[in-house]
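Review form for a predicted model. The reviewer records the input and the model, then writes brief findings.
Reviewer: anonymous (R2)
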Amino acid sequence: MTISLRKARVIIRKALEKGQEMELKPLSVVVLDAGGHVQAFEREDGAAPGRFAIAQGKAYGSVMLGMAGTAQMARAEAQAYFMTAVNGAYGGQVIPVPGGVLLRDKKGVVIGAVGVTGDTSENDATAAMAGIEAAGLIGEI
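Model under review:
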């Protein structure tokens, strides 16, 4: 099972709406499928062009490791050598901070990940969760 394009679009739309409601800086949102491939991406007007790589790195680490950004950050703090090795294995694509949200279906199966960037990591995660909940899915921050 993986995330559908329709659900990915709902996640992005609602995450961006949440960012606007909270008056966050311009956000970029990516949704990856269970294999770490981009299903959908949008960058708000005014968001820095490099934000795609950050959003993708947050989500990629989540889906490839099966742990959300908050758990990755804790692991990096406790075992920096492990996350350094992981990042080497994945070509430097992992960004282990909040805003990378593991995406599960109602049965608990990992179907992808969401990465949001543009504001603080905590606010990014809040926006991601708003999108995920609106799509009727479960997010793990």
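Findings: The chain has five helices and five strands.
Further findings: The mean pLDDT is 97.
Recommendation: see findings above.
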